[in-house]
Amino acid sequence: MSQIIEITDFEAPQLDVYARLTENQLLNRHEPWKGIFIAESPKVICRALDAGCIPLSFLVERRHLATQAEPLLQRCGDIPVYTAEFDVLTKLTGFALTRGMLCAMRRPLPLDPEEICQGAARIAVLENVVNPTNVGAIFRSAAALNMDGILLTPGCSDPFYRRAIRVSMGTVFQIPWAYLTEEFGTVKGLSRLGFKTAAMALEEDSVSIDDPKVMEEEKLAIVLGTEGDGLAPRTVADCDYTIRIPMSHGVDSLNVAAASAVAFWQLAGKKR
């Protein structure tokens, strides 16, 4: 049975995870096994629990305790549930809670890039995508359009940032992902595991994303670059293909999240 605790002291240290710790402090880079993330809304929290994430505490608007929060609390055993009225929680956190609840959870142990690639046919690779909204949107598209996993360079925004989790609708807990390591490399590591690599870039030798050779590859990694500059020239040069989305009305490119959805649909969603 959960411990229902009325919030009376905004400065209580138990509330730091919801009110005062930054994303980097929650991540705990020095001791990653102690890292925490915040899941927001019943659907997202449910997906995190389904993925085996361990809950530490809840922050719940009082009116939701006996309704939408109840089945989630029943799954979580004897953990603290801090509660108050909506305006009190908004003052505490600095923002309006989405559907009235947050859950602090222990970060799962990171996966290895090779684990992500085992048995996969379609992988997305994100190079220095720094906007958490874009990262979350890419995960949501990957889940919806049959991608098997996502690999990220260390310069990417953390998929477990609260905003990335929320925008993804919790699909960051459904699509396996890992940060690329120096030992694995990027394109060369994928080639070693039998993947062909396709860089999304506006180059003279770019082919359309519906190119038959690209679509027929048994194992394909779609490589997407940062919002402003795109992929590094070395990354493009190392890939087996350079691909582009055909455009009209003089538009040269799409936002990386929108481009990922189009590419995933063409190269994974349609085929499978």
From TrEMBL:
GO terms for biological process: methylation; RNA processing. CDD domains: SpoU-like_rRNA-MTase. Keywords: Methyltransferase, Transferase. Gene3D superfamilies: 3.30.1330.30, 3.40.1280.10. GO terms for molecular function: RNA binding; RNA methyltransferase activity. Residues 123-264 form the tRNA/rRNA methyltransferase SpoU type domain. The keyword Nucleotide-binding does not apply. Pfam families: SpoU_methylase. PANTHER family: RRNA METHYLASE, RRNA METHYLTRANSFERASE 3. This is RNA methyltransferase. It comes from Candidatus Blautia merdavium.
